[in-house]
Amino acid sequence: MLKAICLGRVCYEINLVVDKIPEEGTTSEFFEKKGNLGGTAGTVGCCLSRWGINSAIACVLGNDVYGTRIRKSFEKMHIDTRYIEPSYDNDTTLSIVQINSFTKKHTVTNLSDKYISLKKCDFDFTPDLIFVDGYDTVQAKNLLERFPKSLSVLDASLVTSPVIELIRKAKYVVCTQEFAESVTNSKVDFQEMSTLVSIYQKLKKKYLNTEFVITLGEKGALYCINNQIKISPSLKVNVVDTFGCGIIFRAALAYTLANGGDIEKAVKMGCIAAGLAATKVGAVDSIPTLEEMKNIYEQNYA
Length: 302
What we know:
This protein is α/β, with parallel strands linked by helices. The chain has helices at residues 40-50, 65-76, 137-146, 161-166, 177-184, 194-206, 245-258, 263-277, 290-300; strands at residues 3-7, 11-18, 34-38, 54-62, 80-87, 94-100, 106-111, 129-132, 151-156, 172-176, 211-215, 221-225, 228-232.
């Protein structure tokens, strides 16, 4: 069985479906809520585990009720929690996500202390797959340098200097449109597709040994295969909640690459997974099954 390490942000996520976002100066009470673990690294770890990859989580959690709930959730999914460090000075991040039932847009409030880096990054196995986000860049760098032969995927969503410096360390980088625009000092114009091509070319010129995927929201994702730059469209679904779609896209892409798929198949599987996730509320609660993803892929691309 393949083994993976997911290092980065893990939080406790509370999802609230509302008719409208509460106005300033008002008091709101919510009696129906969904709570589960969240965060990029945490959600990716859950995805990979459910899809058959033996996964370990490396993060810092507060020594509180939410940290305990998260650990128990990981353990129920048979995810390795030996590399989770407790913090006795900082609380577990709480993420409150309000989903507008009419517009389908979400508003996120993160209640967190400063991000605490892992004190050590000592793993007793060699991973087949490494997934890192931009929250613990110090240990992400250490992890990528320690296992240079492992397949590695970097989530480049945070536009910060430490994340940009990590690009050269990862084999695959999945970045948002905003991140790509910032790094290349360019702007996408969807009426002129050459602007997208130009941004990708600028990224490759700067980082020759890194493969890039640029996520474009509802328009899909851009990638390159056989020197051809392509866009894989998003899956057409009845959208309920898009909050976890980007994370689940990254998980499906990483899973497919780890199992020998090429970048084209990986992006298409990512778009399928993200589309299926948009039909349910919550990130972890909306993870599609591997069978669902494969069936749609075979119907459309095989």
